[in-house]
Amino acid sequence: MVMKRYADDYENIITTDENGNEKKVPVYRGKYYQVSLDAEGLARYKKNILLVLAAILVFHIAAGFVGNPGMYRLYVALPYVIALAPLYNAATGVLRVPREVRKYRRDEVGLSFERIKTAVFFLTGVLAAGLLGEIIFLLTSTTEAGRGLEYIYLSLESLAVGATFFAIQLQKNARVQVCAGE
Question: What is the Rg, in whole angstroms, of the alpha carbon atoms belonging to the chain?
């Protein structure tokens, strides 16, 4: 069965099989949606978003391995760790993007396209908060030791934020609309 959020879109019908056993079968009664991409466009969208998320993951993990003194501050380390959750959420949304063009149910759209959109926006904010924390650390730090590592971390996280903006641009091509006449 689908998540409770989408339960109103389904109606449970009780059916009887040949042995006389009754069974509840969910039947979709909600609105159907269409995506503005063809089959080739869906495959290209899925591949491009997955590559961008992989690049974000590589930049983000590489920044974590830098070993800069700023990562010992809560306002730098906390956004770094929190950013892994929306990254995972966006990846699960990408894996749920359908392969064929058809009319989609609300739960299919919500667990794929809408999940990617929400997760990438949240990821952008969390990564930007981490960048802001790193800049604050650089401005308030009195020691000159480790400045090079701080700049490497800052550049890698900046690349990750830039990649999230690229992911947002990719999402503009995949417009989800309610099907006409439904």
Answer: 22
- Token digits of residue 137: 């650390």
**End-to-end Cα distance, the chain:** 23
Average pLDDT over residues 46-73: 94
Tens digit of pLDDT for each residue in 23-54? 888 888 888 999 999 999 999 999 999 999 99
Residues in Cβ contact with 74 at an 8 Å cutoff, skipping those fewer than 6 apart: none
Q: Are 167 and 49 in contact (CB under 8 A)?
A: yes
What are 104's strand-pairing partners? 33
* pLDDT for residue 156: 96
User: What is the distance between the alpha carbons of residues 10 and 28, in angstroms, rounded to a whole number?
Assistant: 4
pLDDT digits (tens, 9 = 90+) for 106-137: 888 999 999 999 999 999 999 999 999 999 99
Strands 22-28 and 32-35: unpaired
How many other C-beta atoms are found inside a 10 Å radius of the C-beta of residue 132? Answer: 13
Report how far residue 113's alpha carbon sits from residue 136's, in angstroms, rounded to the nearest whole number. Answer: 35
Contact status, residue 63 vs residue 160, Cβ threshold 8 Å: yes
